[in-house]
Every structure is written in structure tokens, then in C-alpha cells.
Design a protein that fits this description.
The chain has about 475 residues and is an alpha+beta fold. It has 2 domains: about 15-250, Glutamine Phosphoribosylpyrophosphate, subunit 1, domain 1, CATH 3.60.20.10; about 270-455, Rossmann fold (3-Layer(aba) Sandwich), CATH 3.40.50. The strands form 6 sheets. It has a 7-stranded antiparallel β-sheet with strand order 3-2-4-1-10-9-11. A 6-stranded antiparallel β-sheet has the order 5-6-7-8-12-13. A hairpin with a 2-residue loop joins strand 12 (about 230-235) and strand 13. It is globular. The two termini are about 15 Å apart. The structure holds adenosine monophosphate. Adenosine monophosphate (AMP) binds next to loops.
């Protein structure tokens, strides 16, 4: 990781809710965050408003540990926001946990977001030169500072959000609550990270994924448009698209890996997309085999799709220890390898003597596939045919997915055959970008496929990518080092 102290990338979940009748929302925030927990297990936080002041709570740990009865009581009010943060290498302490709060124009605002600002270092430096002091290295603090600065001048939420969009580059799906009980949500001009909204009789809610609306019985109404701002208060809801680019650029990796299969993102069910990804692999990379096995959990829907398309039965040949977190949270490579064994075990009687089609969602660093193939081999598989629902990941992400730099991405420097040899499979096939786009069902120009084809959707993302490629030392780790030097 780079040494400048800004290494973190925020990959998170955000939630916001308002009760029109004025009832308490703290338990809804708790429930919503529980269903976003897969998007971040490092810290969680919430801010609520009772119409007079903002109550703030943020801590390291899981939602269920943080939001006990006492905490929920403390978070009084009829409007509020919540956040879960994804743990990345070098992630800071509680000072980086969201939400952040600040005063501007005689009001107090609390803000949380999901995404990553690609020009964080540059904007921060400029704001520091103007006299701003920052107490964390979290880009939510910078977003709030930019909003507060603009709001202080205009006293208008819509134009302050527009000013933020003009100042920062990157992905941000934002929720805010004010001391006087307004709830604000906005999405960056390319709508890179998801943000949907829903209603019940008494409530309006915003969430990174629709599963957080399901749990509080809010009906999914839709997704925020690129550059759209929604301001809700007890007297009503106002929506305005303050910034209109030519096309959205929704992140494809949300469908491939990050979102829950029971979520609907930008009009597409994640389960259906993954099912189609599996079916597409069966068509494009067929193989004679006896059983289709998913690497749990993400690849399960794709394994069903592969099985349905190919006619080869699917079975649960790998069982996951449900008390182990996602392997990426392990801070070192060695630990990640150990984690595979901690996390997965093979079902010998399903695998022994069989030709296995093994489905996984992605190969990023290439450190987990080898040990998984090893497990299946040890359980007696005759052949192992690895099928990956994601095309080769060849570029870093500047928009909030915790993908490493070029040096660590195995597909950036190895051919498919080299990767096959390295992981020890009998055959290996990746999805094509064309099949991925078709499975998602959103036109290519409206997707961000930056990590797969290096076509980054924002000017600063393109710039950092060019700089990283041009440099002789692709060895430098930590995307933010480049952001700052940009
Ligand atoms: P590896 O190839 O060793 O880097 O591991 C790839 C596996 O990690 C995939 O199969 C996913 O299950 C998981 N994964 C992929 N991308 C991410 C990410 N951005 N954050 C956390 N886990 C990820």
C-alpha cells in the first residue's frame, strides 16, 4: 500500500428513511442495515433527526453488535440514515466510520455514502489550501465538506448537490439527514453505484440494494436517475435531476459479485442475471461432465443456470462455514489461502470419481481458485472444469470496488492458459464481455466495465488509469497514491 495515508477505498452500503407521520425510524435503520451487512462488515453507523437535532452513532463492528436496545433508543427521531463500511487493507479506525456530521447555513447535516471519489486527493488538497481541516481520510467527509461549503453560499439543497457533482469525480450514492428532519438522497451523474427507493404507507426509504427495503416492508419504486437529487420531509417529496449526462454507467461487478441475489438493481434481478451468466457459460464453454458445483455463495445462481442449459445435474459439493466472512477481508495473501480452508469444505460423496464443472464468480488476484480446485481434487474429482462468470479482471477500480492494482491482478499479466495451469484445473473458461452485457440486459454504453476493458467512465478515472499504465512502476500499490499525484 502507498505511504501517504489515503489508501482506503470505500465499498459500502447506505440507507435512508423518513416517516411522514413522525414515528421512530431507528429500528427500520437497524433492519435495513442488517440486510446490507454483506456490503460491509468493518464498521456501521447511523444518524437520526427528531426535527431539532441530529443524533449520531458510529462504531467498528457488525450491525448486530452495534445497534443494541440502548443505541436504538439513543437514535431517536422520524428521519435517519445508516451505513455499513467494507473492510479494506489499511482501513482506518472509527474516525473513518460514517456518517459524518457538519454545520452549514445554520443547519446541521449528517452524510453517508457508497462509492469512491476518484479525485479525492486533488479535491482534498485544494480544500485544505482554502483552509478546510479534515479529521479522517474518508471521502464521505470530503463530500460533506463540499456540500456544506456550497450550501452555506446558496442555502439551497438542490444547487448544493449540483455543486458537489461539479467538484468531485467518481462514484457516490449519498444519503443525508438534517437536524430539522429533511432526508436527502443523490446519485452521481453516471449512477455508477446503486441507489434505489421505496415507499410504504407512512415511509419513504432509500437503499444501496432493494433487500434493505424488503425487510422494512417498503415497496421498491425505482432507482435514482443519474445526477438525481431527492429531498423528503414530513410535508412531501421533491425530486430533481440536477446534472444530466448522456448515459448512466452502472457497475457490472455489482451483478457479478457484490449484491445479494434477491436484490433488484436498476430494474434487473441479480438472481436472474447470475442465472443467465451460468447459462451463457454452458453455451460458450460446454464440457462433458457429471456434476455442476458452485463455489458458494455468489456462484450458486450461475451454477443453476449452467445446469439448466447443459442438462448436467447441479449439486452442493462445497459447503461454506457460515461463520466465516468474505475471504477478501483477510489482510494478507497467506491468510487468504488459509481462509479458503476455513471457509469451505468438499462433500466427498458428491465429488468422488466425478467430472466436475466448478463455477465461481471471479478470479481477481488468483489466490483463492488454486486452493478451491485443490479441495475438490482432494475429494476425489476425476476432472475439474473451472468456469468463471466474470470476464478476466484486467484493471483496477476507481469507483469503490476493492480491486487491487495492475500488479496484483492475475489476468492483467497472465493468459487464460497460464491461469489454468496456476490454479490446477483441467480446463478454464471466462465469460466474454459480450455475454456479460447480454446477461445483465443493460446496453454496453450504460455499464461501467472499467475493470474488464479499461474503459473508465469518468475523466479522472481515465486519467489515473493512463498514468498507472504509463508508469514503469506498476508495482506501486494503492490506487489513492495515484489519485493524489494526478
Ligand atoms: P482471488 O482471485 O484470490 O482474488 O479471489 C477471488 C474471489 O474473491 C472471488 O471468487 C470472489 O468470491 C471474491 N471477490 C472478488 N472480488 C472481490 C472484491 N472486490 N471484494 C471482495 N471479494 C471479492
Amino acid at each position: 500500500m502507498g505511504g501517504l495515508g489515503f489508501e482506503k477505498r470505500e465499498y459500502c452500503g447506505a440507507f435512508g428513511i423518513l416517516s411522514f407521520s413522525g414515528s421512530s425510524v431507528s429500528s427500520d435503520i437497524y433492519m435495513g442495515l442488517m440486510n446490507l451487512q454483506h456490503r460491509g462488515q468493518d464498521s456501521a453507523g447511523a444518524a437520526t433527526s427528531d426535527g431539532k437535532q441530529v443524533f449520531l452513532l458510529r462504531k467498528l463492528g457488525l450491525v448486530s453488535d452495534i445497534f443494541g436496545p440502548q443505541a436504538l433508543e439513543q437514535l431517536s427521531g422520524f428521519a435517519g440514515i445508516g451505513h455499513v463500511r467494507y473492510p479494506t487493507i489499511g482501513a482506518g479506525g472509527v474516525e473513518d466510520a460514517q456518517p459524518f456530521a457538519a454545520e452549514s447555513g445554520g443547519r446541521k447535516f449528517a452524510l453517508a455514502h457508497n462509492g469512491n471519489l476518484s479525485n479525492y486527493g486533488r479535491v482534498r488538497k485544494a480544500m485544505e489550501e482554502d483552509g478546510h481541516a479534515f479529521c479522517s481520510s474518508c471521502d464521505a467527509e470530503l463530500l460533506l465538506a463540499a456540500f456544506a461549503e456550497a450550501y452555506g453560499k446558496s442555502k439551497d439543497i438542490f444547487s448544493a448537490c449540483k455543486a458537489v457533482m461539479e467538484k468531485v469525480d467518481g462514484a457516490y450514492s449519498v444519503v443525508m439527514v438534517s437536524d430539522d428532519g429533511q432526508l436527502v438522497a443523490f446519485r452521481d451523474p453516471r449512477a455508477i453505484r446503486p441507489l434505489c427507493w421505496g415507499r410504504s404507507k407512512d415511509k419513504i426509504a432509500f437503499a444501496s440494494e432493494s433487500v434493505a427495503l424488503d425487510i422494512i416492508k417498503c415497496r421498491l419504486e425505482g432507482d435514482l436517475a443519474p445526477g438525481e437529487v431527492v429531498v423528503a420531509s414530513r410535508s412531501g417529496v421533491k425530486r430533481r435531476q440536477v446534472f444530466s449526462p448522456s448515459s448512466p454507467r452502472h457497475c457490472a461487478f455489482e451483478y457479478i459479485y457484490f449484491s445479494r441475489p434477491d436484490s433488484k438493481l436498476d430494474g434487473r434481478w441479480v438472481y436472474e442475471v447470475r442465472h443467465r451468466l451460468g447459462a451463457a457459460l454452458a453455451k460458450a464453454a460446454p464440457v462433458e461432465a457429471d456434476v455442476v458445483i458452485a463455489v458458494p455463495d455468489t456462484a450458486r445462481s450461475a451454477a443453476e443456470g449452467y445446469s439448466k442449459q447443459s442438462g448436467i445435474p447441479v449439486a452442493e459439493g462445497l459447503i461454506k462455514n457460515r461463520y466465516i466472512g468474505r475471504t477478501f477481508i483477510m489482510p494478507s495473501q497467506k491468510k487468504r489461502e488459509d481462509a479458503v480452508r476455513l471457509k469451505l469444505n468438499a462433500v466427498r460423496n458428491i465429488i468422488e470419481g466425478k467430472r466436475v464443472v466448478l463455477i465461481d464468480d471471479s478470479i481477481v488476484r488468483g489466490t483463492t481458485s488454486g486452493p478451491i480446485v485443490g479441495l475438490v481434487k482432494e475429494a476425489g474429482a476425476k476432472e475439474i472444469h473451472l468456469r468463471i462468470t466474470c470476464p478476466p479482471v484486467i484493471g483496477p477500480c476507481f469507483y469503490g470496488i476493492d480491486l487491487p492494482t495492475y500488479k496484483e491482478l492475475i489476468a492483467a499479466s497472465h493468459s487464460v492458459e497460464e491461469i489454468r495451469k496456476k490454479v490446477g484445473a483441467d480446463s478454464l473458461a471466462f465469460q466474454t464481455i459480450e455475454d456479460l452485457v447480454e446477461a445483465i440486459g443493460i446496453k454496453k454504453e450504460s455499464l461501467c466495465l472499467g475493470c474488464l476493458n479499461e474503459d473508465y467512465p469518468t475523466p479522472f478515472g481515465k486519467h489515473i488509469s493512463r498514468m498507472m499504465k504509463a508508469s514503469k512502476s506498476l508495482r506501486k500499490e494503492g490506487v489513492r497514491v495515484w489519485e493524489e499525484q494526478g
